[in-house]
Design brief:
Blueprint lengths: L10 E5 L6 H12 L2 E4 H8 L2 E5 L4 E4 L1 H14 L2 E4 L13 E6 L2 H10 L4 H12 L2 H9 L5 E5 L3 H17 L5
Parallel strand pairs: 1-5, 1-6, 2-5, 6-7
Antiparallel strand pairs: 3-4
Length: 176
């Protein structure tokens, strides 16, 4: 595991299929740990870090290089919770913990349909969760000992996850 000794606070990536509770978890974790929450979707929109709009999937096509350039200095400082549904393009050195939130398919289906997801966007996201695409992506992109899969079906799950991660942050020590 590569940890930058210049950082006095850890960086956490919270990833998972849309609808698994990344933003809810990240927001509450930021409040309990005083770490900075960075929602990549919002950052992409605010700073135009994209290459246009994908009509079929109804989302921006993010420019991964622009996103990484935008975040480089802030990530080196530490103390960040990055919230995004992808993870393989971020530099490995940035993160001390990678959390993959997972949600049971019927729960996820209900959450996404409430958001107005239909057609290819709904199907792709449900299939992504069924096949554990983001967990595999995280395991391939980061040292396995920093990747943590957490169930995120209920408010109780989210509360427990925040407590677990808050304890981890409090006990984190930079490696020299």
């Amino acid at each position: 595991m590569v940890q930058d000794s210049k950082r006095s606070r850890p960086n956490i990536l919270v990833t998972g299929t849309p609808g698994t509770g990344k933003t809810t978890t990240s927001t509450a974790l930021a409040e309990s740990t005083q770490l900075r929450h960075i929602n990549i979707g919002e950052l992409v929109r605010e700073k135009n870090l994209h290459d246009g709009w994908d009509d079929e999937l109804e989302c921006h096509v993010i420019n991964e290089d622009l996103v990484c350039d935008e975040l480089e200095d802030i990530m080196e400082q530490g103390g960040n919770i990055v919230d995004y549904h992808g993870c393989d393009f971020f530099p490995e050195r940035w993160f001390d913990r990678v959390v993959v939130l997972q949600t049971e398919n019927s729960v996820l289906y209900d959450r996404l349909t409430k958001r107005g997801y239909t057609g290819a966007k709904l199907t792709n996201n449900i299939e992504c969760e069924i096949f554990q695409v983001l967990l595999e992506e995280a395991k391939e992109s980061y040292p396995e000992d920093i990747v943590l899969a957490l169930k995120s079906d209920t408010i109780e799950d989210i509360t427990r996850n925040i407590a677990t991660l808050t304890d981890w942050v409090r006990n984190w020590q930079p490696r020299s």
